[in-house]
Structures are given as structure tokens and as C-alpha cells.
What we know:
Helix content: 25-40%
Largest sheet: 6 strands, antiparallel, barrel
CATH architecture of the largest domain: Beta Barrel
Distance between the termini: 22 Å
CATH topology of the largest domain: Elongation Factor Tu (Ef-tu), domain 3
Radius of gyration: 45 Å
Structural class: alpha+beta
CATH class of the largest domain: Mainly Beta
Amino acid sequence: xxxxxxxxxxxxxxxxxxxxxxxxxxxxxxxxxxxxxxxxxxxxxxxxxxxxxxxxxxxxxxxxxxxxxxxxxxxxxxxxxxxxxxxxxxxxxxxxxxxxxxxxxxxxxxxxxxxxxxxxxxxxxxxxxxxxxxxxxxxxxxxxxxxxxxxxxxxxxxxxxxxxxxxxxxxxxxxxxxxxxxxxxxxxxxxxxxxxxxxxxxxxxxxxxxxxxxxxxxxxxxxxxxxxxxxxxxxxxxxxxxxxxxxxxxxxxxxxxxxxxxxxxxxxxxxxxxxxxxxxxxxxxxxxxxxxxxxxxxxxxxxxxxxxxxxx
Length: 312
């Protein structure tokens, strides 16, 4: 009886050893590992102008000239178009003449100096009883009036200078300038057409360019603003550029399980084109599950005694 028990135990131990040996010899393989680890994450993206701006006039009027055409490169402050400004030009000329009051100011200054001398002279005569109190009063009054007239003429000159500034500002409103460095995307109006609450031109800012990336929710929190990203656009072909993460959405879209990332892509020489597809390569690891495969040929490599034990 004891011998049978020992035999059974030995058989169990042998089975355990056989199974252990089998697990060691089983050839489990994956394309790389059970979890494939990549040092970089590649996502599809789209290159776009940083912004579009529709340029209009702050005042109504008739378009006199448009100095740019579609696809032209423009710089900040460049004159793009002009409205008819004949009335404003006339106002500026009138205001310039009105602001030229140096002679009037000089004349009032001379009058004031004379009034002061007269007051001194009358005061001296009055002490010697050579002039009356009325003459002294008249001289004092003339001095006060001369001071007031000089102050008034200086104030009038200042008002006329301000009117000149206003006339020039109104004239400046008839000139449409570019607020950005960019390119002309669309030209809506031609010379002779009326401008009133409608755009004249459409501009696009292409330096820097905006790169939009849609990432899956599992990457949320791994991509930070300021991160450097490699961008490979479809055009120019086989080209690679460095972009910087400018903003990362803080909300995940529940329907698609994704969020949006925006990159700033420098384009100082304007070689890059907006509206092209691209791929963005982020310096973050990607973990991907792979399927495990069992190699049936492993059984053939087992010793015959182990096979026999497994069959029992």
C-alpha cells in the first residue's frame, strides 16, 4: 500500500516536472514583444495658414485703387488699397493754413510788450503827478486785455493744430493697409465700386503656419505645450521641419475619443504651403499590444518520455 502511494507521488512529481519543462521549451513569440514599444508616435496632420483676415475700410466710400492682386506677398503696414479722398485732402489743406498762426501770436506778443511798457511809463508819470488816475487805469486795463488776447490766440492755434490732426486722421482712413505679413488670398472689389461694411481683400498669415493634429485620448496628458515635433509635409516632398506645440485642447471629444493639438511651424522663406497634409512625429513612446502565437512545432522537440507523460 505504501509502495503504491510513493509511486503515485513520484508520478505526480514527474508530471509537474514535465509540465515545467514543457513551458520552458514552448516557443512563444511575438512580432517584437507582447507589447511593442516605439520611441516615437506618428500622427496625421494638416498644415494651414495661422490665420485668415478679411480687410475692409473703416469708413464708407468709393474705391479709388487696389494696389495688390491675388497671390501677392504683403508686409505689415503696406498700402493695399485707397478710397477716393478728394474731400479729405481739401480739409487737410484748409486745416494746415488755419494752423499757421505764428504771425498772429507774434502780433499779440508785441501788443503785450507795449502794454507793459505803457503801464510802467504811466506809473512813473503818476508818481510825479504828470498823469491822471484814469490814464493809469486805462494802461492797466490794456495790459490785462493784451495778456488775455495772447492766451486766446495761443489756444486758437492749439485748436487749429488739433483740427489738422483730425483732418489727417480722416484722410488716413481712406487708405487701407495690411495688419500682417502674409499673402493675398482673395480680391473682392475693383476700383470704382462702393465700399460699405464689406471686405475688399482677404489675407492669410503663413509665417508661422498652423499645424493641426488630432490625437487619440490615450495620448492625453503626454503632449505638452512647448514640445518640439518633427513635421513632414506632403509638399515639398521628402522634407522635414521642426514645429513647436503651441496649444493642446483640454477637453476630449466624447464622440470620437480624441483631442486636438496645434503646432507653430516657422516658415520665414515661405517654402511651405498651407492646405497640405502632413505627418507629425512626437517624441513620446507608443505601446501597442501584439497577438501571442503558439508554435506547435515545439511539441516535436520534447523528449519521448515527456510526451508519454503528457499523454497519460
